[in-house]
Amino acid sequence: MKKIFPSLLLIALVVASVTASAFALFSSTTRVNGLTFSTGNADLQISSDGSTWGNTLTLNPAYTNMAVGFSNTQTFYLKNNSLSNISLKVSNKLLEGTQANDPAIWTAIGGKINIAFEKYNGTIWTSLVSRTISQWKDTGFDIDSLAFNTSQKYRLIVTTSALENTDAGQVLSDLSFNFTGTQE
């Protein structure tokens, strides 16, 4: 009997060690307190009226034949319609089409057409960024942060400064703003 008890104890210890080793090899736990990681498909949408959403918006009127003192304001909405609960950092950049890549035209009028974006905060418009189209061409700008399943009203203001009659024949066509929403 004296030999059986130590043998059983040794067998139990071996079984416990093997079980613990196997559990350690086939299980994994990682925890970071205070941080939540979520992934999903980011979906930034745009609208002219805040009710019909899509991926593109055509501005009306088309910005052609601008003269000295031209000014126009266009209201639009952006919405974070992502599939999971993520906030989106929204930035925008001016994109050039094939017809707009003429350096002489950019030199002549790129610094004379101004673009401003404003955000509507319940009762007032707040300026987000205002630059010439040449500055927009070279750099993108962060304009906002949108929480999951929320929308925000903005306006685009296009004005001209110091345009001259000699600039009237200069045309920058095929330009568009690209809004990008990236997970914060």
Number of domains: 1
CATH structural class: Mainly Beta
- Mean of pLDDT: 78
Low-confidence stretches: none
- Percent helix, as a range, is 10-25%
Number of helices: 3
Q: Any idea of the CATH topology?
A: Jelly Rolls
Indicate the structural class. Answer: alpha+beta
Helix and strand element order: HEEEHEEHEEE
How far the N terminus sits from the C terminus, by CA atoms, comes to 68 Å
Q: Please give the CATH architecture.
A: Sandwich
- How many strands? 8
Largest sheet: 5 strands, antiparallel
**Widest sheet: strand order?**
1-2-7-4-5
Can you give a write-up of this model?
By secondary structure, the protein is an alpha+beta fold. It has a single domain, classed as Jelly Rolls, CATH 2.60.120. 19% of the residues lie in helices and 36% in strands. The protein contains 3 helices and 8 strands; from the N terminus they run H-E-E-E-H-E-E-H-E-E-E. The chain has helices at 4-25, 103-109, 133-138; strands spanning 44-47, 71-80, 88-96, 113-121, 124-132, 141-146, 151-160, 175-183. The strands form 2 sheets. A 5-stranded antiparallel sheet has the order 1-2-7-4-5. Strands 6-3-8 form a 3-stranded antiparallel sheet. Strand 4 (113-121) and strand 5 form a beta hairpin. The model has no long low-confidence stretch (mean pLDDT 78).
